[in-house]
Amino acid sequence: MSKNTVLKKETNKIDFEGFKNEVIADYELACVSREASLLGRREVLTGKAKFGIFGDGKEVAQIALAKQFKDGDFRSGYYRDQTIMMAIDQLNVQQYFAALYAETDENLEPASGGRQMGGHYATRNIDKNGEWKNLMEQKNSSADISPTAGQMARLLGLAQASKVYRNHDELKNIEKFKSFSNGGNEVAFGTIGDASTSEGQFWEAMNAAGVLQVPMVMSVWDDGYGISVSKKFQTIKESISEALSGFQRTDEKKGFEIFKTKGWDYPHLCATYEKAVKVAREEHIPVLVHVEEVNQPQGHSTSGSHERYKDDARLQWEKEFDAIEKFKEFILKFKGENGETIATEEELDAIRKSAKKTVLDQKKAAWADFRKGTGADFDAAIQLMKNVANESANGTFINKEIEGLEKAFEPIRKDVYNTVNKVLRLVRGEKGSARTQLINWYKGKLEENKERYGSHLYSASKYAVENIEGIAPTYGDDEKMDDGRMILRDNFMKLFEKHPEIVTFGEDTGKIGGVNQSMEGMQEKFGELRVSDTGIRENTILGQGIGMAMRGLRPIAEIQYLDYLLYAIQVISDDLATLQYRTKGGQKAPVIIRTRGHRLEGIWHSGSPMGMIINAARGIHVCVPRNMTQAAGMYNTLIEADEPALVIEPLNGYRVKEAVPTNLGEYKIQLGKVEIVNEGTDLTLVSYGSTFNIAAQAVKELEKAGISVELIDVQTLLPFDLDHTISKSLEKTSRLMIVDEDVSSGASAYILDQILVKQKAYYLLDSEPVTVSANDHRPAYGTDGDYFSKPNIDDIYAAAYQIMNEADPKEFPSFLD
Ligand SMILES: Cc1ncc(C[n+]2csc(CCOP(=O)(O)OP(=O)(O)O)c2C)c(N)n1
Ligand SMILES: [Mg+2]
């Protein structure tokens, strides 16, 4: 067995007992993990859990990987990684089953508090108050998401953080950053299935990691299939390492280090990971570990069986090359230098048997806890409903409902609350005290469950944006004016001086300071580490932001134009916007996304798909400043908060002169607060961003016709007018017009819903509400194209005038007919 040479060498270094114990512990863990997969599948098939996707077949490779995983390191992986999580002590069997059952107590199911299906792993990196834990005292896993390759962009950022920490001398001396890094020695471990390497996200991240030279160890678990679709249809040359061979570094050129190993070959796996991680950790070289011949004994998931698509030969191979069977073979054949053996077959069988029992016991404990949670609700509801039955004329019918619930097989909360609702409907109009008690209990439970299933979409810490109070900009006597871009730039200068953990990056951000020069001179001043150019790759620009923000840095990820945010919307929506929610407050990534848009030229530099963005990105804040003073004030707020946000600077505003505040870097725009820019009595006009400035011109024109418009800038779409200032304005004007440059029924529909429904302003209106939006086609090129595509001053004037004409035709006779 030539493959044993590495281990034989090892045995010279450590005493045989130590070596033997390690191998046996590995075997034991592999067995426990396998038994968890086997039992997990049964739990789904018998109806206790809804869906299962397991890590069987990948155990041995993951144990080898985990040997190299150190405190402070990070994982960004996918649903097959249960054995890594167990091996790094961040998942036990009880938690594994708790997740399968959707246990909502985050103490019992720490990855997501039951919000994610099992197989989606995460560690708790912030505490109950939203404060960072010491990430150097634990092994970390960023929170998994289901979209295949969705872990890639974030992985890049997690690895890049080590690079920043290694090379950023200022941070090394600041105490708080010692809980994020030790001189950048941390590795980011990525895992992905062979089929998911077909996704663009994989290629984009791999190329960027090679360019950036970050310590990322990318493992591909190659089991030859993506559900039923074989490698033949997934990967060029049916081999990801062959496909990526051009990434291999050479003596002359930087690149990746590429390793190949086999998923059942324990000694080779151990040796490979040792080499792979060493080069990544020490030299900051990205590494690909292509783990071939991985198997999948139970097929893809509980949704089907692999006999449908694997032929007999493959199924036979899966049996013969089962990772645990091969591991067992290795142990039994092993002979040390002096003829020592590791274990006998009986001993190994006993380990397997005991693993089975451990798993069964842990599963039972998880189920008992899970039942306890719903059981308490069940018991309380039954008692309260029985009391209602006793006092109600409808007692017989109520008792029938109670009986139905009592007979239900393992009832869940849905069954309990559904029965309570049915009973309450039966006693509507009655006045008994038991009924009141049931109603009060139910309302309290609704709140509890809102929290249980809906908390932490946004930060709940003291650093939540709603807790960051505004500070007005101040102005000197000299009435100094400057281009908008200079106000932004000088404000960034202040922020970068104050917060050494801020880094910014994007296309053209570094050398030239951005396409609009709002970072001009920043790279010279703060260096290439903090102000850098990236490739054209919006998805991973966002991923850099997410990963670095998860490791204590404050990234400002720049997307060159709003229209290209679409390339990043997947990672914004799937990963960033869901992070706090999907971990139930266990992780955060306060990335600031900076972009510019709304109006300039042509189809792809004038878009304003705000409806799409705010609907895709609930969970992040969306700021829509109308000028750069406002934008800078928003950055000043956001840097003090611990939440992700998107700021869309008005693209046509960089060279517009604005008064220069004297307190740059200090003044703050409070998010969720609107600004009444012009007071008026006839009509409330609501707008934001670039179009706001056109609306402001129209308001001046309307004044000449005797129409007094209250002009309100919402400033932020998420959050939206938290004080309900708009409905207060409508109490005065009773007429509402919304001017928005998204397509019809885009952001304007959202704004209308906020004002009419959420703020209950419908009954304040004397005229029908009017929305002025862009045309549904993309905006045409040129100034006339803009005029006829987007809301223009004449559209806005005409729509406002029309409202007043309808209200008082004598005073405001039509000027168009
Ligand atoms: C973006 C996206 N598309 C499709 C799916 C559905 N899906 C889930 S797993 C999977 C196959 C993944 O195969 P592979 O990457 O080889 O991982 P394996 O399950 O084989 O370990 C697919 C298509 C998904 N989750 N995300
Ligand atoms: Mg696969």
Map the helices and strands:
Blueprint: H1 5-13, H2 16-45, H3 59-66, E1 74-76, H4 82-87, H5 93-101, E2 140-141, H6 152-167, H7 169-172, E3 188-193, H8 200-212, E4 216-221, E5 225-226, E6 229-230, H9 240-243, E7 257-262, H10 266-283, E8 287-292, H11 312-320, H12 323-333, H13 345-391, H14 395-407, H15 413-426, H16 433-454, E9 481-483, H17 484-498, E10 502-506, H18 522-526, E11 531-533, H19 538-549, E12 554-558, H20 566-576, H21 579-582, E13 592-597, H22 610-616, E14 621-623, H23 628-638, E15 645-650, E16 657-659, E17 675-678, E18 683-687, H24 689-704, E19 709-713, E20 716-718, H25 725-733, E21 736-739, H26 747-758, E22 770-772, H27 782-789, H28 793-807
Parallel strand pairs: 1-2, 1-3, 3-4, 4-8, 7-8, 10-11, 10-12, 12-13, 13-15, 14-15, 18-19, 18-21, 21-22
Antiparallel strand pairs: 5-6, 9-16, 14-20, 17-19
Helix pairs in contact: 2-5, 2-12, 2-13, 3-10, 5-13, 6-8, 6-19, 13-14, 13-15, 13-16, 14-15, 17-23, 19-20, 22-26, 24-28
Domain Transketolase-like pyrimidine-binding: 482-656
InterPro entries: DH_E1, THDP-binding, Transketo_C/PFOR_II, Transketolase-like_Pyr-bd, Transketolase_C
Organism: Brumimicrobium oceani
